[in-house]
Each structure stands twice: as structure tokens, then as C-alpha cells.
Amino acid sequence: MENPVLRVESVVTRFGRSVVHDGVSFAVARGEIVALIGGSGSGKSVLVKEAIGLSRPTAGRIHLLDADVWGLTREELNALRRRFGMLFQDGALFSSLTVAENIAVPFREHTDLPDALIAPLVGFKLSLVGLPADTGGKRPAELSGGMRKRVALARALALEPEVVFLDEPTSGLDPINARAFDDLVRALRDSLGLTVFIVTHDLDSLLSIVDRVIVLSGGKVIADGPVREVKAMAHPWIKEYFSARAAAT
Amino acid sequence: MTWIRHASENGGSVLYLTGAWRLGDLRPIAAALESLSLSGPRPFVLDGSGLEEMDTAAAFILYRYLASLGCTEATVSLRAVEPRLERLLDLVRERMQSPPVRARSMHRGLLGRVGASAVNVWRLLKAHNAFIGMIALELLDLVRRPRLFRARETVSQFETVCLDAIPVVCLITFLIGVVLAYLLGVQAQRFGAGIFVVDGVGLAICRELSPILVAVVVAGRSGAAFTAQIGAMKVQEEVDAISTLGLSPVQVLVIPRLVAITAALPLLVFVGDLMGILGGIGVASWQLGIAPSVFVDRLHSVLPMSAFVVGVAKAPVFAIVIAAIACRMGLVVSRDARSVGENTTSTVVQCIVSVIVLDAVFAVALQRLGI
After folding, report:
1. Are strands A84-87 and A67-68 parallel, antiparallel or unpaired?
2. pLDDT tens across B89-130, in order?
């Protein structure tokens, strides 16, 4: 892969005695939608936190957008942070601000745009993620889970990032909302050339929008490839994973 | 950088887009659009042959400008735009129908604000009152079915409310005893009446200061803790889970805290009495030359038992009010982090104000009763 957007090289993570990652390596190319899957406690979310500079791996290197995430100074890391967006599992909206103010935060902090330009941009970002304009005046506590995720996505997309990380983007959404969210992500990728890195255990997302699946199990990458190939693999965990899906549908 | 150039070709208007249209350059781009000073509505052709990059924000600003001229989808056409940028422009055009958002704001005049807060205080008092009634009913239930009582939880609360508070209560009441004895001593010495410091310190500490100080400390420590604990549980839907399991949140959360704090406060007041008097003894012997044995002897003869009893008897009343306010403020937290903080602050303020108001009521009432 030439010039990948995200490159994880033999990352090892230990919490006390428990080993979460035992030499994890993979790469994500520009414009790809990649899903990282694995059972609960397999360290998916930890890996994302390490990739975006929130939690330091015990060993190994992580390159994001041609920068060595853990070799950067504070300023460089903050500059890098403007180039990717992160959607946290529960949205992580600031509860003291309205929806519109939440989305305006990145504009206010990182651009010199006047309020007269920010307000319409915020309205546009809301409609970009498919929310009605009157959502802007509400508080996050007044929104449903699906709406909160959309607002969080709008905030993550505010600064026109090159990469977005989505942590369980569709968990807690009903199937219709989940599908709508997937369609939105794919539309954004197709038109914006966004690279999307999804951490999920929701298989429906996987099959419909993902280019490639990386399977994390026992602290290692046990599979990495298109959905169809991964599905056909003989690894017991993968077999069980996909047969659980077959049984459910 | 020109960003955009207007030209008339074959009777139509063509807008040549050039350069990289990015969020970082949005200000100059918006300015460039305005400086075109076009008038509409008329058909436009967007020529993208010189366009290198574009992001959604820039595309939005462009379309917003065209929309402000009265252009619609039918009157704007694209020419020589790279397919990926065309997709982006289409996405933006599809999604931009909604009008701009303004955060709601409600500004009231001075009179309106005073009125609104008066109404709020009245509602708050009514709701607190109702909550105390609800606790009373649950307590009645407890009398009928004593098995509902949660002894373990109560004891654990008692430990944090009472035992853990002893050091800070000791420190504060001791220092207030010192200050009081010192102030009284300075005055009394002028009249050669140093021994009356004992009367003053004993009465003031036992009857007023120790109960008030202890109640304020407990309101700040435990009241705030109650609201924050119950509030956090509310946010995590634990309170709903308690109800769903067929338990009463009041029985599980409120009554153990209420019982613990009601038992703890009189004991803490007693500790406060001792420490305050100890502070007084220290200053009296060091500054006024009154030996501790003389101090204690005098205290026995001048401090009426009623002063001590009144002080300790006020404590459970303060405790019930603190527990009721703190627990209710926790239970009415709405589901966000900010609300927990707001209610915790509010609890401390309300508890301290209520304690002082109640103390004033006690002072007047007991005076009238001649106690």
C-alpha cells in the first residue's frame, strides 16, 4: 500500500499484567472504509485512542497522515488533530452547549470565521447529516440516541477532516437509523474522498459499506481483507462470528 | 488568488472557479463572491476547469451566494468539473435546503427575571415540601415493614457522614472557640471581667455556633456528595433500574442517607461543643490567665443544661432538611453531566440558607417560649 493514511506497526499495549495488543499491524489507504472488529474487550477502542493520540501504546509505532503520532510535540499533535475527526461511542456532545454551539466549537476554536459565516455553516452541517434545522437550538439531553450520533458526526466533520474515526457508530440505533447512518457515511466517502475507520461489532454496517475488515482477536490481527474473503476464513472465532449473524437473520 | 471570475460568453454568464476552495480560506472566498457584485436571478454556468480542490464548507458558501441571487437548481449548471468535485457539489446542493440555525436565546428584563426567580423559588419550596411528605410516607411504610430497612447502606453512609467528618468539624469549631474567646477576652479584660469569657464561649458555642457550623460543614461535605452520587446514578439510569426491580428509590437511596445524617449530626454537634470549649479554655489560660480547672468549674455553674440540649436538639432538624434537599436535588438531575454540577451547587446553597433560616426561627421561637 502506497502512502497509507493510517499505519499501525507492531503495537503492543499492556495494562498492568493483561496484554491487550500483542503486536498489531495494519494499514489503511486513502478513501477506504475500513472496519475493525473483534469481541468485547479485544482492545478495539483502545487501539483507536492510541491512533488519535489519546492513550499511549506500550510499544510500537502509529503513523497517521504521515506523522508519527507518538513522536509529535503537543503543538504538532494538536495541528494533526484538526485533520481528522472522531465520533465517540455515545456522541460525547458537550452537555452545557446547544447542538448548534457544539458544532460551532471547532469553527470557533480553529478558524477565524466570523459568526455571520459560522451560523449558516452550522446549519448546513446539520442538514448534511440529515437533521432538521430546529435541532440546532436543542440541548444534547433532549435528543434521541440516533440524533446525538448525527450531531456528533456533524461536529467531527466540521473542519473537513481527511480521516474520520467512528467508534461503534450504529450501536444503539434502530436498524432503519443505522442503515441511514451507513448510507450517509458512504455518501460522504464517495463525494468527499474521506477515509473512514470504523470500530464496530454491528455486522450490518460491515456488509453494506465496508471495503475491508480487520479482525482483532487475542491481541493480534487474525484477518485483514474484503468482507467476503474474511467470511470464508477458517479461523474458529471468525466462523463463530459470522455464523452468529447467519442465525440471527 | 482570484478564486472566482465572471465572464459573459454567448449571452450567458460563466463563473470560472480557480484554486483550492478550502475551509481555511473561507473568508477571502466569501469576500471574493461578494465583490463579484452580480445581480440575479439569471442562468449561471460554473466552470471547474481551474478548480483544484473543494470541500463542503466552500461549496456551501458558493451555493449560498448563488441562492441569495435567487438562482435555483435549474439555473445553475456545471461545466468541466472533476467527477469527484461534481459529486461533492451535488451532495452539498441536495443537503443545503434548510435555513440557517440560530441558537435560541431568551432575554428577560429585570422585572421578568425577578418574577421568574420568585416563581422558581416558590415551586422549589413546594416540591421540597412534597418530597418531605413522600419521605414521611416511606418512613411509615418502613415502620410497618422493618425488613425494608437497609442497615448496611445506612452504616456505610454513617461512616462517611459522621466519622470521616470528625477531623474537619474539630478543626473548625476549635478555631472558632479560639477566635470567640480571644475577642470576648479583649473586651472583658478592659472591665476586669475576664472570667465572663467562660459564660460567653460556653453559651455561644453550645447553643448557636457549634450546631450552625457543623450543619454548614455537613451540608457542604455530605449534602453535595448525596446530590452528586444520586445525580450520577440518575444519569446512568441506575435510579430507573432500582424502580424497575420493584424497589423504591426513596427506600434504597434516600432513607439510609437520611437516617445516617440524622444520627450523625447531633453527635458531630457534641464533638463541636467539646472542641469549641477546648479552644476557649486554651485562649483563656494563655491570654487571660484563667486556669483550665477554673474555666471548667465556672462552666459547670453558668452554662445551663438547656443551652446544650437546644443546640443538640436543633441538629436532627437541620439534618432532615439537608438530607431532603440533597437527595431531591440528586433525583431531579436531568440526563446530562452539566445538570449534576448545577444541582450539586444548588444543594449546597439551599442547605446552608435553610439551616441559617431555621436557626433564626429556632432562636425567635425559643426566646418566646423562654427556653
Report:
1. unpaired
2. 887 887 776 554 444 556 778 898 999 999 999 999 999 999
Tell me whether B78 touches chain A (CB under 8 Å).
Answer: no
Domains contained in chain B, number: 2
- pLDDT 10s digits, B150-175: 899 999 999 999 999 999 999 999 99
CA distance A118 to B200: 65
Closest alpha carbon within chain A to B89: A191
Q: Do A126 and B30 make contact, defined as CB atoms within 8 angstroms?
A: no
Q: Are A206 and B69 in contact (CB under 8 A)?
A: no
User: What three-state secondary structure class fits A216?
Assistant: strand
Strand partners, B77: B45
Note whether B18 and B137 are same-domain residues.
no
3-state DSSP call for residue A37?
Answer: strand
Best CA proximity match to A136, nearest among A97, A107, A100: A100
Full-prediction pTM beyond 0.80? no
Q: Which of B65, B78, B98, B101 to mutate to probe the A interface, most A CBs <10 Å?
A: B101
Query: What is the residue range of B80's domain?
Result: 4-97
Interface of A with B in 56-115 (CB under 8 A): 95-96, 98, 100-101, 111-114
**Looking only at Cα atoms, what is the longest distance across chain A?**
58
d(CA A51, CA B123): 50
Q: Are residues B42 and B177 in the same domain?
A: no
pLDDT of residue B212: 96
DSSP B50-112: EEEEE-HHHHHHHHHHHHHTT--GGGEEEES--HHHHHHHHHHHHHT-SPPP--------HHH
Please name the member of A123, A134, A191 whose beta carbon is closest to the beta carbon of B87.
A191
A141 CB near a chain B CB, below 8 Å?
Answer: yes
Q: Examine the domain organization and report whether B79 and B199 are in the same domain.
A: no
Q: What φ, ψ does residue A32 adopt, rounded to 5°?
A: -85, 150
Three cell numbers, residue B312: 443538640
Give CA–CA dist B68/B36, Å, rounded: 13
CB A26 within 8 A of CB A224: yes
- pLDDT of B5 above 90: no
Strand-strand pairing, A220-225 and A59-64: unpaired
Q: Are B185 and B286 a contacting pair, CB within 8 Å?
A: no
Distance between CA atoms of B183 and B176, rounded to whole angstroms?
Answer: 10
Neighbour-count burial of B301, counting CB atoms closer than 10 A to its CB (0-12 exposed, 13-18 middle, 19+ buried):
exposed
CATH code for position B77: 3.30.750.24
Distance, in angstroms, between A163 CA and closest chain B CA?
Answer: 14
Angstrom distance (rounded) from CA A82 to CA B92: 22
CB contact under 8 Å between A114 and B23, yes or no, is no
The CA-based angle A128-A134-A138, given to 5 degrees, is 105
Alpha-carbon distance of B212 to B209, in angstroms, equals: 5
